[in-house]
Prior knowledge:
The chain is 38% helix and 34% strand. By secondary structure, the chain is an alpha+beta fold. The termini are close together.
Amino acid sequence: MQVPVVKVEIVEERENFLKIKLVGQKxxxxxxxxxxxxxxxxxxFSSWSIDHPEHDxxxxxxxxxxxxxxLKQTIDELLEECEKLEQSxxxxxxxxxxPAK
Length: 101
């Protein structure tokens, strides 16, 4: 088993919004996208597209007067959520007797 990983890419940047792409396992993205931190006025879930049997993309639009600062804050929050997911994943693997790689 592998530890969940999510990559963040900036797709489009304008004066008052950024479009970012999250790439990772479908289950990991689904958990992240269900979090309240992505359900705010300034962060909108845009679309979800299947590109690979095991990986998926999710697009988020960040609208703010300073979208780069909001992006940094959002990425920090996403990283925090990923760490929590990673810890719970490792705990679940240990409990099941199958160490995470």
